[in-house]
Specification:
It is a single chain. The protein is mostly helical and 506 residues long. The chain is built from 23 helices and 2 strands. The protein has helices spanning 3-10, 19-26, 28-47, 54-72, 83-100, 110-119, 128-147, 167-181, 184-187, 198-206, 208-223, 230-233, 239-256, 262-279, 282-288, 299-302, 304-308, 310-327, 334-361, 372-402, 442-448, 450-467, 475-498; strands at 121-122, 414-415. A two-stranded antiparallel ribbon has the order 1-2. It is globular.
């Protein structure tokens, strides 16, 4: 068997893992973010100033925000169920140290600190959880696309063949969800009136880099005889095409239907698509082709998974648009965000109940078809992931109140309360921006060039696979390669961010 066929067999015919393990895995990035924030606050408490060295800041961010994720999906995967507890205990230890070492003059009763925290106002112009969510989806995807080719990456985390919930199955849907959270329709202020199809025209011109990248990937894969998992998207289709066409189709729907009714469009799309799958020949066609023997003759047969799964991904996108609109409502207080987190948690519980019903009576989760269960699962886990980041940010806001003057990049700033004497009494007034702190933050660096980061990860993954026999790699070598790969990608983003360079071609 050739090397190409060996690698294809290595990532094929898999069944995924449990929902519980994926949920526990999703708690790691927020805990890592909390750990990094607490360490920075402790540094400020000890030295009386923030960490200003770009070199040490990059090292800290990589070691705390990225490295634990690399270990957790390789050598530490057997103890995945204990990882969140271990990191949470470490965070609790740092918080205890901060609380006990506060300066004498700032020591106020704990009850008073809680009251101050509940009354605190936050910068209404910035929701860090959205930025961090999108960046971490990108980081986790970049780790997964290379790590899956090494034997140390558990097969249960890879994409399931037909039915199942693998970590990488969630990554695809989460990428769509994260894109929709900041789409033009969400960011457009309700008071601004624009022609109905203006966003559609803008999207038509903005998706050309994705189309270009799609064709670039197609030509490179075919010309180099690179291994590919045909049942993911088909013979010619790939994720860049999916992302481009979903964005275009969503803009068309949002030009026709009111954007605040996106959730209704999402439900109708997902349910109707599932009904067609269950009552017609469509499911058999996706899984086995028009002849029932997995034929790939003709464009539709060759790319049936990629083309028909667009309906499911479009439903996820529309659901995310609704979530984005709701999240961007003016909330400028800690109390407001605690209430928002409660509402999101209730929504997640309802979605998981619906997921159970959908899997029992409609169809199990299938990324290959992007069916109803898959859509519900992706939205439920993405909202869970987002809630974790909101809670993390609130915990860091509370800790910052303990140490006067402390700051954490990509975290809420406490601002002055709104002036009740003015007409705009619902708005809080920012005290100050983080200034130079944003220039020494890995999350901000990746956020500025997200598409480039994803593209660079894909190119590096291909390069590593061409140069190295990944299937037979030893553990130490695998960890070394994965860390070098991620550090190189992060370093490029960090340098571009330090020089204030944004590579955007549209």
């Amino acid at each position: 068997m050739s090397q190409k066929h060996l690698k294809e067999a290595f990532i094929s015919n898999l069944n995924g893992t449990s929902l519980l393990e994926i949920s526990l895995g999703l708690s790691l990035p927020p805990l890592c973010l909390l750990c990094r924030g607490l360490l920075l606050i402790l540094y400020h408490l000890r030295y009386g100033k923030p960490l200003s060295s770009r070199k040490y800041s990059l090292l800290l961010d990589f070691l705390v925000l990225v490295s634990p994720l690399l270990f957790s999906c390789t050598v530490l995967s057997p103890i995945m169920f204990f990882m969140p507890t271990i990191i949470a205990a470490f965070c609790a230890g740092i918080f205890s140290k901060i609380y006990s070492q506060r300066k004498h003059e700032t020591r106020v009763p704990f009850r008073q600190i809680v009251k101050d925290f509940q009354k605190a106002y936050l910068d209404p112009e910035y929701i860090p959880a959205i930025t961090v969510f999108r960046v971490y989806v990108n980081v986790l995807t970049s780790i997964g696309i290379l790590a899956v080719d090494f034997p140390q990456y558990p097969r249960r985390y890879a994409k399931a063949e037909t039915y199942g919930t693998g970590v990488m199955d969630l990554g695809v849907g989460a990428f769509i969800f994260g894109n929709a959270l900041v789409c033009p329709e969400v960011r457009q202020k309700s008071c601004v009136t624009q022609p109905k199809f203006s966003n559609l025209a803008r999207q038509f011109f903005s998706i050309w880099p994705l189309i270009f990248l799609g064709f670039g990937r197609l030509l490179s894969v075919k010309s180099m005889e690179y291994h590919e998992h045909t049942s993911e998207y088909g013979v010619h289709w790939n994720f860049f095409f999916t992302l481009a066409f979903v964005r275009l189709a969503a803009s068309l729907l949002l030009a026709i239907f009111p954007k605040n009714k996106s959730w209704i469009v999402a439900i109708n799309l997902a349910v109707l698509y599932q009904l067609i799958l269950n009552t017609t020949f469509l499911k058999t066609f996706i899984l086995h082709g028009s002849d029932g023997r997995d034929t790939r003759v003709g464009f539709l047969n060759a790319n049936r998974e990629g083309l028909l799964s667009l309906f499911g991904y479009l439903a996820i996108y529309m659901a995310s648009v609704q979530a984005g609109l709701w999240l961007l409502k003016c909330r400028n207080s800690v109390k407001g965000w605690i209430e928002a987190a409660r509402f999101l948690l209730l929504t997640v519980l309802v979605l998981f109940v619906f997921l159970h019903v959908s899997q029992a009576y409609a169809d199990p989760v299938s990324r290959r078809m992007a069916n109803l269960s898959y859509c519900v699962w992706v939205v439920a886990h993405c909202l869970t992931f987002f809630i974790c980041f909101v809670v993390t940010d609130l915990a860091l806001v509370f800790t910052k109140l303990l140490v006067k003057g402390s700051s954490v990049p990509c975290c809420w700033n406490v601002v002055k309360p709104p002036n009740t004497g003015t007409k705009r009494e619902t708005e809080a007034v920012p005290v100050r921006r983080e200034g130079k702190l944003s220039h020494v933050c890995l999350i901000s660096a990746i956020n500025k060039n997200q598409l480039l980061f994803f593209l660079l990860a894909n190119v590096m993954t291909g390069t590593v696979n061409i140069l190295i026999d990944t299937i037979h790699s030893k553990t130490a070598f695998t960890l070394c390669i994965l860390h070098l790969y991620m550090f190189f990608n992060c370093l490029i983003m960090y340098i571009l961010h330090a020089k204030n360079i944004v590579l955007k071609f549209w």
